């Protein structure tokens, strides 16, 4: 059974799954697809070619799938927004569609986007991600599974935020944050590994220990980066989580948010 408030506007071409509840003053566009059991509390606007999975709860004054705030957007482009399952999207969150024709903004499953946070065009957000109050994620940013972005943080275009990493509150991220690390500052620098975040994501003590050693090899020894990578490959040939760090380092285009020397005693 679908419940639609009398004050909601749902285009007849929109596809609404069973068990959805659409509250007062919501607006649902013609190319929107909602899966089952989604709750839109009130004043929610969903536009464009937008797909939302099942079991999501969307709070008042949220906008999803609206045109990107990108001057490169060309009228007539068909762009997409895809939101997964069981996400909680709090008040005044904005999630924008892609910019270039046939491109997408993607949010995974089991994410929590807190009040006034923003996910810009062409972002790729993984599963179990938390984006806190008023954090701003600029275009083309990638955020790995189980990452945590703190309140008022700002992430620059094309940056990568690694799996199970944490960006501290009010950080200004202009370079990549490796998996399993904590970055803070203005500009943000990786300081330590995200031990608690890894534990909450289900990593074992031995895996946490391996990541800690990998971090030390990368940043706390007087080695060139390529030599550090070679050492990691030799010491952890079968470690999938260390390989994530290696891959993120090798594939970085923005450069790494490398820690300053004075940070080392804090590890």
Automatic annotation (TrEMBL):
Instruction: Look up the record and give one Gene Ontology term from the biological process aspect.
Output: lipid A biosynthetic process
GO cellular component term, pick one: membrane
Per UniProt, residues of the UDP N-acetylglucosamine O-acyltransferase C-terminal domain are 176-256
Report the Pfam families cross-referenced here: Acetyltransf_11, Hexapep
Gene3D superfamilies named among the record's database cross-references: Hexapeptide repeat proteins (2.160.10.10), Udp N-acetylglucosamine O-acyltransferase, C-terminal domain (1.20.1180.10)
The UniProt record lists the keyword Endoplasmic reticulum: no
Instruction: List, alphabetically, the CDD domains matched.
Output: LbH_UDP-GlcNAc_AT (cd03351)
Q: Which GO terms describe its molecular function?
A: acyl-[acyl-carrier-protein]-UDP-N-acetylglucosamine O-acyltransferase activity
Q: Note whether Magnesium occurs among the keywords.
A: no
**What keywords sit in the KW lines?**
Acyltransferase, Lipid A biosynthesis, Lipid biosynthesis, Lipid metabolism, Transferase
NCBIfam families assigned? lipid_A_lpxA, PRK05289.1
| Record-given protein name | Acyl-[acyl-carrier-protein]--UDP-N-acetylglucosamine O-acyltransferase
This protein's species is OM182 bacterium MED-G24
